[in-house]
Amino acid sequence: MPYSGTVQVGGPADVHELRDLMISKVAVGPMDNNAYLLRCRATGEQLLIDAANDAGTLLELIGDDGITSVVTTHRHGDHWQALEEVVRATGARTYAGRHDAEGIPVPTDVPLDDGDTVRVGGVELTARHLVGHTPGSICLVYDDPSGHPHLFTGDCLFPGGVGNTFGSAENFARLVEDVETKLFGQLPDETWVYPGHGADTTLGAERPHLAEWRERGW
Prior knowledge:
15 strands, alpha/beta
């Protein structure tokens, strides 16, 4: 079956097979969080994005090969409920945005700034720092050399809008600006978006609505 990005809690992972990278998406926990396991096809090395909940499901997905790294997209608790258990079981290095690390109870081994790189085997991901949902939210960009970019956005970008800024007009303005300049301004329409909750989208599907989002204020 082709990859759809549609998953549900308790259901199987959906796997997006690229030339150099395999991306497995699974839904976990009461807030229907997405977690993503990235596997370098050349080396077998694996990286997990958001150990959100249900450590048993995540460890089963990871399998016997383990993971070398786990990246937490931001400090909100629904994105790190299983982090301690997953790190204890795998010995993985922990990554998070520098300005959110203090809000994550598991120590961050590698704090990330805008433009930093994270490697999984022979594959390189670039961190983009986006302010507004939290002070230190990060997304990860994989610029597939044989195709289009792939973008893991945490809770900063979803189908239909940017992430929740909890009624703050200042935070909303900052998040929209960062999303426009660092994501829409630098990546093509074909960029596949993997959010922290719910269905996937593309930048091309969302780009026509940027002005609408600004006008409505959320």
